[in-house]
Structure formats: structure tokens, C-alpha cells
Amino acid sequence: KSQLADDALLQLGIYYFDHEKKSDQALQYFQQIKDNYTDSNSAPAAYYYIGLIYLERRDPKDLDEAFANFERVTRVFPSSSWVDRSLVGAGLALKLRGEYDKAYEEFSKVKVRFAGSPLAPRAQYEMGLSALNSDSYIDAAYDLQQLINQFPDSEFSQPAREINTIIYRLHIAPQIDRKLYLPDSNYSVLLP
Q: How many CB atoms are closer than 10 A to CB 23?
């Protein structure tokens, strides 16, 4: 075992995953790191990418495997630079499994522990969506508004505004305001 072998395997795996879009081939390289270089500097990245590959498949068993690999990064390598990404990945796996409350918890860990991370806006957005999927409309609106306020230039800011508008119109507006958003009976006569 060479000291550089794990890094070479990682770079090959990333190349096949990112550039060639060959997840199965990339998985073989990441799996070699997982099997033979578990304590190396490349291990957290390998576990993260293994999680991504299983997350892509979206099969329930694969989502379990994705979650397990993301969790391994956060538990075994808590000071790794891959933890914030792995928390988002774990949250996405839980969200796809329909476990919205648990997904919310994973995304909120990014907000608390990695507020300055480039992934913080995405985590905040996913918190809002997870709350929305749990029918917690007030929490969803609050989380999405925090995203809008804290990260106004984020790619997630505009979708957050749009979702917040819908949440307000459908779930939060007082009864008097709701009349503004209901179909006008004067126009329904014109519909075929």
C-alpha cells in the first residue's frame, strides 16, 4: 500500500463520477478506499461520494446505504471538510425516504455548525421544504424567509420567495385576505 494510492484512487473515482458520469466505475475506486484505506485522508471524500452514488439511485435500499455513508463521515471524521456536504447528503436521503422531521434535523446541523459554508443556503432551503412536507407551514415560511434575509443573492432565494408566497396565500393569510386569492365568481361564468 502506497501512501499516495488512496489519493490516486480518489482522483480516479472523482474523474469517473464528475466528468465521465460513470457512477458504477467511480464506485469501484471509492470502494477500494473504503475497504483498504479506511483511516486515510481520502476516506471521508470516498464515503461522501459513495453516499452520492447511492443517493442518485433513489431505491429505498440504496437510500439507506447513502445515509449510512454520509453518517459515517459525520461520526468517524467529525473534523473533516466533508462533514457539511455529508450532512446535506444525509438530509436529502432522509427527505427522499419521506422522513422529513429527521431530514430537517440534518439540514439544521449545517445551519448551526457550518453557518459560513457555501452549503448553508441550500441547507436552509431544504429545511423549509422539509417543514413544508411535514405540513408545518409557519415553520416552512420562517425558514424560507431566513434564507431570503441571510442569503439574498443565493440561487435558492428566488424559489424561496415563490414558495413563501404560495404558503402565505394558501395557509397563512387570514380568512379576509383569502377572498383576494379565490376565483372571482364573475369570471367563472365565462369559463366553458
A: 17
